[in-house]
Write a structure and sequence with these properties.
The complex is a heterodimer.
Chain A lengths: L5 H40 L10 H10 L3 H4 L12 H9 L16 H4 L8
Chain B lengths: L13 H37 L3 H91 L11 H9 L19 H13 L3 H9 L1
The chains are: A mainly alpha, B mainly alpha.
């Protein structure tokens, strides 16, 4: 076996760092999907018929939407309806997490009109 | 004697109304039984009264006044029962409405949790894409630097890592890969170590320095 060159060592370290970040993102993804699955089950138990079931197809389509499918070589029948997870769920529930702010007639900055906290310059 | 208290106790629960109804029904049954006993006694002394028995006549007068009291009591109890039944039905309706309102608010809160979790999944997807692309770029550059470990460029390692992190239940990944599932950092470190013959810890130490 040959020794590392300096450039190879740098790139190897970069690769490992990126791989570590991938692992962390996988963990975060699984946690979020588990939480979503649990909440969806609770919705079904409450008798809410429109509750989106945690389907593989929907999550795989979201992976397509985020451009991950080629990197993971995922297989899915149709990508035509690929949506982000939040868009797909909000559509399924006909529910928006934040209602849009009421239109204001008073003058002010855009963020103030939208009811958002202003950032100091 | 039971007084009609339906409007006096608007805050009673259905269970409390049921207990009150059961009490009223019990008292009504007792009153009816008392009336039946008085009627029997009247029949028993009827012949003596006809024969002019003074004691029997006096007893009959007492029986009659007691019968009148019991009939009035039974009327009151019937009215109380009717009002209590109406109040119990109203309380049941109120409780059903409150339960439905509670269910609706729980549905809204749970919907919010679904959407929040989905938003977090989207953020994780975005972070995953950035990290995967960075890794792919590093692997490609390493390959171009005469580091002939082409297995770093294959998606199998990433798929195995996804399986290791339990994502095969959510994504369309082949289950056969779960046999050799390992975190991506471990898999990549093994591939790099195979090629270089050096401990990966040295590499990390060099990078930190």
């Amino acid at each position: 076996m040959s020794a590392w060159t300096a450039e190879q060592a740098v790139k190897g370290a970069e690769l490992l760092k990126a791989a570590d970040r991938v692992d962390r993102a996988f963990v975060a993804l699984r946690l979020a999907l588990k939480r979503r699955e649990k909440a969806a089950r609770e919705l079904r138990d409450l008798g809410y018929s429109a509750a989106p079931l945690p389907s593989k197809r929907e999550v795989t389509l979201a992976a397509y939407r985020h451009g991950i499918a080629p990197l993971l070589r995922l297989e899915c029948m149709s990508q035509r309806h690929a949506r982000s997870m939040v868009a797909a769920d909000a559509l399924a529930l006909s529910f928006l997490p934040v209602s849009p702010p009421a239109p204001s007639t008073t003058r002010g900055t855009r963020s103030r009109r939208a009811g958002l906290p202003e950032v100091a310059a | 004697m039971a007084k009609p208290r339906a409007k006096d106790d608007p805050g009673l629960t259905v269970a409390e109304w049921d207990a009150r109804l059961a009490d009223l029904q019990r008292r009504q049954a007792e009153t009816k039984a008392g009336l039946a006993a008085l009627s029997d006694r009247r029949r028993a002394i009827a012949l003596k009264v006809t024969d002019g028995d003074a004691a029997a006549t006096e007893e009959l007068a007492g029986l009659n006044s007691k019968t009148a009291e019991l009939i009035a009591a039974e009327d009151m109890l019937s009215m109380s029962l009717e009002q209590a039944t109406q109040s119990r039905d109203a309380a049941a309706k109120q409780e059903a409405l409150a339960a439905e309102a509670d269910r609706q608010s729980r549905i809204t809160a749970t919907c919010r949790r679904v959407v929040e979790a989905s938003a977090k999944a989207d953020v994780a997807f975005a972070a995953l894409r950035v990290a995967l692309e960075a890794r792919k770029k590093a692997a490609r550059e390493l390959y171009n630097l005469d580091f002939p470990q082409s297995r770093l460029l294959l998606p199998a390692g990433v798929q195995r890592a996804a399986c290791h992190h339990g994502l095969e239940t959510f994504l369309g990944i082949e289950r056969s890969l779960t046999r050799h599932a390992a975190p991506l950092a471990i898999g990549d470190a093994e591939l790099l170590a195979l090629r270089s013959g050096r401990d990966v810890a040295d590499l990390a130490a060099e990078d930190a320095a």
